[in-house]
Design a protein that fits this description.
A 5-stranded antiparallel β-sheet has the order 4-3-2-1-5, covered by helices on one side. It is elongated. The chain is built from 5 helices and 5 strands, in the order αβββββαααα. The protein is of the alpha+beta class.
């Protein structure tokens, strides 16, 4: 038997899932997260079926990718229709400066920082460690000074 508590849970869970912002739609920008195009931004040009989409982007030829291999972003290219030609997609991409919009997002900044850190040499990691030690020492001293002045 279903109780009132079960019904409330169903209603709440239905409400929570309806607040998603990122839908699979034509013009939605996505980040390729697997394969040879990993880390590249693409645009959904057409939806093939419930598991795949036709995508295209700078440095990525038009191809079908599985939804598991792309991560949807909040960005959307406006003005392209169903199965738009490559020239229209490129024109809309450049007009809306999608690369600049992407670079401003915190997601892109985190990816860039991760790439910088991964590219560090042993000496670079050593320098980061020394700088972090110095910063932590300063923070500790300021904390002690603040504690002494408040006491």
């Amino acid at each position: 038997a279903i109780t009132a508590g079960d019904l409330n849970f169903c209603v709440v869970s239905a409400m929570v899932t309806s607040f998603r912002k990122r839908y699979v739609e034509i013009g939605r920008a996505a980040l390729a997260n697997y394969g040879p195009h990993e880390g590249k931004l693409v645009v959904i040009v057409d939806v093939v079926d419930q598991n795949r989409a036709l995508v295209e982007g700078p440095g990525v030829s038009r191809q079908v990718l599985n939804f598991k291999r792309i991560s949807l972003t909040d960005l959307k290219v406006k003005g392209i229709g169903h199965s738009a030609r490559s020239s229209k997609v490129e024109k809309a991409w450049n007009e809306q400066k999608l690369d600049e919009q992407w670079a401003k997002t915190s997601w892109a900044k985190k990816l860039e920082a991760r790439c910088k850190r991964a590219a560090l040499t042993d000496f670079g990691r050593f320098r980061v460690m020394v700088l972090k030690k110095g910063r932590n020492s300063e923070v500790r001293q300021m904390y002690k000074q603040g504690k002494q002045s408040s006491a």
